[in-house]
Specification:
The complex is a heterodimer of chains A (about 240) and B (about 475). With about 240 residues, chain A is an all-alpha fold. In chain A, about 65% of the residues lie in helices and about 0% in strands. Chain A is built from ten helices and two strands. Chain A is elongated and about 60 Å long. With about 475 residues, chain B is mainly alpha-helical. In chain B, about 55% of the residues lie in helices and about 5% in strands. In chain B, helix 7 runs parallel beside helix 17. The longest helix of chain B is centred in the middle third of the chain and has 30 residues. The chains are: A mainly alpha (about 240), B mainly alpha (about 475). Chains A and B meet through helix 1 and helix 3 of A and helix 8 of B.
């Protein structure tokens, strides 16, 4: 979208709610990661300095939990959005506009691999969300559930050890840490590079912040959705998302 | 002349320095330091259960014996601690010296009492309750001895060494009170108590009280949830009414109205337009330029109320923030306490401003009646609610200072409250039980304020800034 001179039709990809949720998740995730790792690596000088800067271990613990609660509120918002999408907007959860995986994604994945390996001439006609976008979404979404569960065990060990053996608290500690490493690596390296380092969008893909895409992007990245839009004779504007 | 002046100044400084040095040395040697046992004797490793039990055993050598006693007012008080009993205590794996930190010394006397705060955060668990009881020592509530006393010397409520018949009692039982039962409140909160507690056990503040006071994140008395539900219904009704109108040409679909509206807000916030909007916020909302344009006295009246509320909200919010992030810091404990000199002065000053603003506005409406002041019923209701809330707050403060027997050097910081407490001390209308009633009046009035927010004049607190921001001027 940079340097464009001709007024181009705009297609709305993310509404304000999803942009807000992404912004909040972004900062809360960074917050949870920074505070969490400075607790986990408390013997390191850098972590100690950072903890000192934030006002001591109690304050860092509080911040960690604050960010975590914020993150989980975003997960709740997404769940409520799914209900709204299904019940009010009458959306199809397995349709082409849904973030949920469907059988089609398996086919597209095979075709996409074929394209990457040079066996096909063109990439498959991706719909609104490609398989790696769905993968991005669901890794975080499912990861949040397990992080929340193990996190609750560590937050309220007295409560949970009434019903589970004490070793579950230790298990929760290990799993919470391991999954944190996985999630941070996935989000900070794979998610950001897949989004922003592709030649078409480098140095950055701003769609999650602006919410809008051009006709060219639609035709290039979401040909399936583009075809569906034109087939139903819907002009540019705000589509139901 | 000049060098001589310098010399004499230097000599004067030197003398002053010597005097200070002598004074400091003298003051440090004036008190005889008790000799600490653990300076020479080995401290057990109190991080292990073994070390703790070994340390306990050392104390039990004497304190287990039935004859173990202390002298209190020429009579013997048992200091016997029964191990079989202490083993059922939640502190069974804590060494005696971890709580009684100043006993391992000669002479062997525990003058400082038990030090709960060396392990437990002072506001832990129930910050609302603990904030109201800052001058009550932990053990006065949390141990099982029912006799408490107000120590006038340091303005602290502590466990009494005598029972209600002034006979010395033993406090060596070490039983922790079950705080889930309400009865433990009634050792102080009964009629004619001597420790300055109001007769009624009052509920905790609600989080809506944060507009003026530090308050924990709790619902508090049931009147507040009711008020919040009414207010929420009002807000939802207002929003539903707003979204009945068309948004950018869209008349039917609420989904698209919300989408278009939110899109418009988003595209303004993330654009250069944010600067004129912020400018409008600063001048028109914060500095209230438009009210000033209407008249200086009008701006003055509104500012007396607005800035006082604003400042109180800011300070209370800061206290809540600090209580969450740094619960043990001195600043937190100062801001949370009503009797700390800064908070007391600040509260009386801002409360006085609000009351002055309300009285001035009422005077203009009903006495001087300038032509440009148009009085509506709604305005009067809002002013009366705010005025009565503030007035009842001052009455409460006065009664609290009187009933709580707060020493004058502490109470004077709340200058209005102290004056009221002196006034009330002339006649005794049973202030101890009166406090509860006036507290409920104050709370109900504030609940009324909250419930009335989306309906009457008070709605302007939100709608006026909103319409000012929506109608901002560019450049």
């Amino acid at each position: 979208m940079r340097g464009q001179t001709v007024e181009q039709p705009i297609y709305w990809r993310f509404n304000v709610l999803h942009r807000v949720v992404h912004l909040v998740v972004m900062f809360a995730f960074i917050g949870v990661g920074l505070t969490g790792f400075s607790i986990a690596f408390s013997s390191w000088g850098q972590a100690q300095t950072f903890v000192w800067l934030l006002g001591g271990i109690d304050s860092v613990r509080y911040l960690h939990r604050f960010c975590a609660v914020l993150l989980y509120l975003c997960v709740t918002t997404e769940i409520l959005w799914v209900l709204y999408f299904k019940l009010v907007l009458r959306g199809n959860l397995l349709g082409p506009n849904s973030i949920c995986f469907s059988r089609r994604d398996l086919r597209y994945f095979r075709q996409h691999m074929g394209y990457i390996l040079g066996r096909r001439q063109a990439p498959p006609p991706f719909d609104r969300f490609t398989w790696w976008e769905k993968f991005d979404y669901w890794t975080l979404f499912i990861g949040m559930q397990t992080m929340a569960l193990t996190g609750l065990f560590l937050w309220f060990p007295e409560f949970f050890s009434r019903y589970f053996p004490g070793v579950f608290v230790n298990l929760a500690q290990v799993l919470h840490f391991d999954e944190a490493v996985l999630a941070v690596f996935y989000k900070f390296f794979i998610h950001t590079s897949v989004r922003h380092l592709r030649p078409e969008v480098y140095p950055g893909d701003w769609v999650i912040f602006t919410g809008k895409v051009t006709k060219e992007t639609m035709m290039r990245a979401h040909p399936g959705e583009w075809a569906a839009l034109n087939a139903s004779q819907r002009g540019p504007g705000l589509g139901d998302q | 002349m000049k060098p001589r002046l310098q010399t004499s100044a230097a000599a004067l400084c030197a003398m002053a320095f010597c005097f200070m040095a002598f004074w400091m040395v003298g003051s440090s040697t004036a008190q005889e330091e008790p000799s600490e046992c653990l300076d020479c004797h080995r401290q057990r490793n109190l991080n292990s259960n073994e070390g703790v039990l070994s340390s306990q055993r050392f104390c039990y050598n004497c304190h287990q014996e039935p004859g173990s006693h202390g002298d209190f007012r020429a009579s013997k008080v048992s200091l016997q601690v029964k191990p079989e009993y202490f083993l059922t205590s939640p502190h069974r794996y804590v060494a005696c010296v971890q709580c009684h930190t100043r006993v391992a010394q000669s002479p062997h006397r525990a003058l400082s009492g038990v030090q709960c705060a060396s392990c437990h955060p002072r506001m832990y668990g129930a910050p609302g309750t603990h904030a109201e009881h800052q001058r009550v020592r932990c053990e006065a509530c949390h141990t099982d001895s029912p006799f408490v006393t107000l120590d006038a010397a340091n303005n602290q409520v502590k466990l009494a060494h005598t029972n209600d018949k002034q006979a010395p009692i033993s406090l060596a039982k070490h039983k922790v009170t079950d705080v889930s039962r309400q009865e433990f409140c009634s050792r102080c909160h009964v009629s004619n108590n001597q420790v300055g507690a109001p007769t009624t056990v009052l509920p905790s503040k609600s989080f809506v009280c944060i507009a003026c006071h530090y308050s924990p994140l709790q619902m508090g008395s049931p009147v507040f949830p009711v008020a919040i539900i009414i207010a929420t219904m009002g807000v939802v009704g207002t929003l539903a009414f707003w979204f009945k109108a068309s948004v950018q040409g869209e008349v039917a679909s609420v989904h698209r109205k919300v989408q278009l509206g939110s899109e418009a807000v988003w595209s303004k916030v993330f654009s250069w337009e944010i600067f004129p909007i912020l400018k409008t916020f600063f001048f028109d909302v914060l500095l209230q330029r438009r009210i000033l344009a209407n008249g200086v006295s009008r701006w003055f009246i509104h500012s007396l109320i607005f800035y006082s509320f604003f400042a109180r909200f800011a300070l209370s919010f800061l206290a809540l923030f600090l209580q969450k992030f740094s619960p043990e810091s001195e600043l937190t404990l100062t801001l949370v306490s009503k009797d700390s000199s800064f908070v007391a002065t600040f509260n009386d000053l801002t409360g006085g401003f609000i009351l002055a603003g309300v009285i001035w506005a009422m005077g203009r409406r009903f006495l001087t009646k300038p032509e440009y002041v148009s009085t509506q019923e709604q305005d009067t209701i809002a002013l009366v609610i705010i005025g009565l809330v503030t007035l009842s707050g001052f009455l409460l403060e006065g009664i609290r200072l009187l009933v709580g027997q707060i020493p004058p050097h502490v109470a004077l910081s709340a200058f209005f409250g102290y004056a009221i407490s002196r006034l009330f001390s002339v006649v005794d209308l049973g202030w101890q039980s009166m406090y509860g009633y006036i507290w409920y009046v104050h709370a109900l009035l504030w609940a009324l304020f909250i419930a009335y927010l989306p309906f009457g004049k008070l709605k302007h607190i939100f709608t006026t800034p909103l319409s000012l921001l929506l109608n901002y001027k560019r450049g």
